[in-house]
Amino acid sequence: MSTEDPLSAGPSSLGVLDALRALDTPTVCNALEVVAPHRRAYGYTTSPLVCPDPDTVMVGYARTATIRANAPSGRSGDNDLAMRVGYYRHMAEGPQPTITVIEDIDASPGYGAWWGEVNSSIHAGLGSLGVITNGSIRDLGEWAPGFGALAGSIGPSHAWVHVVEYAVPVTVHGMSVRPGDLIHADRHGAVVVPADAAADVPAAAAKIAAAERVLIDAARSEDFSIDRLTALLDPKGDH
Predict the structure, then answer these.
(1) Where are the beta strands (DSSP E) in 36-161?
(2) Residues 189, 90, 20, 201: what is their CA dihedral angle, to the nearest 10 degrees?
(3) pLDDT tens digits, 65-97
(4) pLDDT digits 0-9 by tens, 28-52
(5) Fold designation for 6-202
(6) How far is CA 37 from CA 30, 158, 171, in A?
(7) CA 180 to CA 17: how far, in whole Å?
(8) CA atoms within 13 A of residue 154's CA, in its CB half-sphere
(9) Per-residue pLDDT for 234 more than 80?
């Protein structure tokens, strides 16, 4: 397991980000099994998330926070304002592009939505590509154009929603994230891409895709059979 600090590792090149953006998240997970095999069983979301736009693809650096909504914050008005300003400053930090990762720590996540027309617009304006959260989202018809979302649920109210902490490690649907982590996300879910493996993912993905294409093309051919499948899986004929 890498001990590299994502905040000090520096951003991947734009070329690497573009290459990752051309892949879907399951393909990135497949490639990580090759280039970072210790990551095979962790580092990705493990429960379904709501994705309002199936064309969503996000590759960016995590900005994180925790929220609650089932009771007021208990802070003074001035302290609430200071928390919000500090939170937005964290969201605006480089490197960009960013992805906002929010852990709802209520006993029943999604009780109130931090995300709607206002916050999707603010975060998009600060350089965020979208949000990944176990909490709820709302205002889908007024959502900021192009702002991606993977959420635990859709709900109508923001209740008493407030930021508890920001720039802290969070966990969303099984995926643990630190501020600065590189994330790939689409309608299937999300995965943290280790900074020291990111540049190797596209080539590994291409090699896997080529091997899979042999099986797919054979399976879709008219002369496909169990004998042909066995020959492809075991070309040496040992089984």
Answers:
(1) 57-68, 98-104, 128-133, 136-137, 148-150, 153-154
(2) -90
(3) 999 999 999 999 999 999 999 999 999 998 999
(4) 999 999 999 999 999 999 999 999 9
(5) Glucose Oxidase; domain 1 (3.50.30)
(6) 10, 41, 21
(7) 14
(8) 9
(9) no
